[in-house]
């Protein structure tokens, strides 16, 4: 926004906190306005011209304009009454009258533009819609660094909902100064908002450097869709292949553009300013890729090695005794049946196959005209073959009737099954044979440990190993098949998803390898029992949403970064095919990826650019490229690194790093790594910023980091304990590497609400949907004996009932006469005819739907004096309390302080 | 030329061959790292994995020859590497390159290959020296 220091006499500028811009006041007349007083008169005409670009047919004539502009650029500037500083902008002189990057005179236009954009997708409940107002507006003021003393500042859960510190790009960095030039933090964020210029500075600051990205995140109902460039004119850098983005500069009068990643000058494509639909001149500046950090291109045929593959699903369904008995088979079949309409199928191309397996494989032929499915049994699982070349994989639309008949009858075919054992490996091979030439998705639903054929696993969990250094071996793949087969799948762009239901040992660690390297998802329902309504509801909801989510296929993802920045390590679900190329068989919604960065050489540029491009096939058979761009300023000032650090991104980095560390080393090492990062950071902060003794200082924007790290150390994924089954740990690890930050943060730092005394407006519908009660600090000292509390980590909800809960409360919420009549455990809360019950239900409903991802957390009612294990589980969400072998928050801070003191600084 | 001369001549040739394998490994790893000649990690690992066991077997065979011919010094020099190889191939079975992990473990693999290279180079000159010494002592 305009600089306030160049005001005509009599004017004053006031910084407006709520709108994050300057308010200009004329002292004499009392007139107030948002626009800079100097930019009203001469700019008005240009603004109007910009409003109606199509009407101006002369726009294509660059040469004429350029010549004129080159001949007298100075005169032009001299005419307008701008202060001389503005001329020194890195501006192409050919465009003074239409556009000058970063110059304040464009402001009036962009203010309008800004108002046109609807509220930004905000982190959390959407109440932070103005988070963008400070972005892309030039870096006049450096971020102020406020230190807080952790020892005297109690953690405030609201800090976690705040957006990351604003990105202060130098003026003119983004070509159109659009508020959307930088990708929203929910798409891409960095652990720091200002990149250190040298590796030495990074090391000195001890702030980890990593990108956290979630390029295919789901959109809320009120969010605008990602803009799509439909004319297949794709400008890319010749050298580094970066896509044109809001941070490039046009040179040579607009006929060339300078790549912001490698500084190469490139030709602007011929049709870049041409509207090929109407065959008229188009306004270059209205191209979405020049104003949006997240944009999608429709790819021309050069981006295809074969015609875009149809969406293909192969369901591999366990039909053994355990699957039938737990009710998984029936629930799965019913869910697929009910969601056949929701599976993306706009072009009627989607294909489906269903294969059952226990100790043999069961194929089903689905003929378009037959309503009675016929079953083919293959009992030779050592050498898998397809019993019939066709009619097993069928078109969803054509064979709809047969599919419906099959899904309705499938559970009854195996209702009496007593077979124990599972030939999952051979079933996977069969499914792979079916779709290896087109790629697609294999969805595995199994309730037993694979015991037969390739990929057979042993029940290797030995309780004696738990809690020992050898525990991490249980978290690695138990059989090489799950890695080699995953690579095969990745090559054929086959993605595997796992839905696991076993009541006993399932070996999640091995089975989750397949989704890990093929960009699938793992879902684990320990002890699933369809007799429990809540179990079914959770599974049916998650599986249904999973089937309905629009998925990308045949994905290639590349992460580019400005010269000097090296992408050193990648975390998430994909197969790393080259140093910056991620092969993904599918582009699932709401998966998150963490990319570690290293500074290889000194960065001289004032800002750096990161770009993630996903080339993928949409569910409706279109080849598209989603380009996500983030520009960050560079700095040589250490306090700016601290002031711009993003604690949420650092926590996501730590979680991913801890998982990697566990697999390559030991759980103990992973915990040590987390402690070391936090200690080093505090230590470096103390050394470089504050020197006051007796306190534990950290930047204001990092004050929740120690608690997040403690949450990580206390998490079921890392906590030292001899009682945590390796399946639960392995599942938590897969979630760490895939959950989007919006869900990962509550997973590390649960939310805790008091419901019995929540303010009257909570649970009612407000401006941003249901109003949630204020979050309490995660400490059991807030638990009162007569209260009703809710703890949730995004994947589980606990409703804690105090033992002295009054009968009225019990009546209102549970429709039960007294506390004693209440049964703990999984629970479906009745919706009663009273305001309180409706408000509590509304809060729970809101918690279930407010975050991205398909998860539907089940609700547990926990009685204060109820079952000890459930009680302990619920209390483990209160991470500020002292745990079995883990410190309380105060003790943890004490440990950190002692560590820092003992290092002798 | 006596037995010792022949033995060390063979050892020199063997060391040269092992030297070439190490160089080959390093070149392949560098190719993968710089990514200029687009190198697929799956193919790379499949290719390199063919050479791991033969390389180790060749080295073990050389050690066996030293043992049988009572060349204690030469055996002693080679013993640490032999022990390392046996541990890797026979006991922990971590000798194969894993395509899913290759980029993360690449610096480690490169370092190991360089150390092997250095070792084979030194042993090459040592065998050469011993061969010459053996030839001279015979001719005297």
Total helical elements of chain A: 23
- Which shape of chain A, going by the Cα principal axes? globular
Count of alpha and pi helical runs of chain B: 4
Helix share of residues of chain B? Answer: over 70%
Task: Give the total of beta strands of chain A.
Answer: 37
Helices and strands of chain B, in N-to-C order? HHHH
Most residues in contact, chain pair and counts: A-B, 16 and 15 residues
Distance between the termini of chain B: 12 Å
Q: Which topology of the domain at 312-548 in chain A does CATH recognise?
A: Rossmann fold
Rg result of chain A: 29 Å
Strand content of chain A: 15-25%
- Our measurement of the CA-to-CA distance between the termini of chain A, rounded to an integer number of angstroms, reads 43 Å
What is the CATH superfamily label of the domain at 312-548 in chain A?
von Willebrand factor, type A domain
Report the structural category of chain A.
Answer: alpha+beta
List low-confidence stretches of chain B. none
Could you name the CATH class of the domain at 312-548 in chain A? Alpha Beta
Task: Sketch the major β-sheet of chain A.
Answer: 8 strands, mixed
pLDDT < 50 runs, ≥5 residues of chain A: 1-5, 40-140
Mean of residue pLDDT of chain B? 87
Characterize the largest beta sheet of chain B: strand count, sense, and whether it forms a barrel: none
Overview of the molecule:
The complex is a heterodimer of chains A (905) and B (140). In chain A, strand 16 (351-357) and strand 17 form a beta hairpin. In chain A, strands 6, 8, 14, 23, 25, 26, 28 and 29 form an 8-stranded mixed beta sheet that branches. In chain A, strands 15, 16, 17, 18, 19, 20, 21 and 22 form an 8-stranded mixed beta sheet that branches. By secondary structure, chain A is α+β, with helices and mostly antiparallel strands. Chain A is 27% helix and 19% strand. Chain A contains 23 helices and 37 strands. Chain B has one domain (3-139). By secondary structure, chain B is an all-alpha fold. At the A-B interface, helix 10 and strand 25 of A face helix 1 and helix 4 of B.
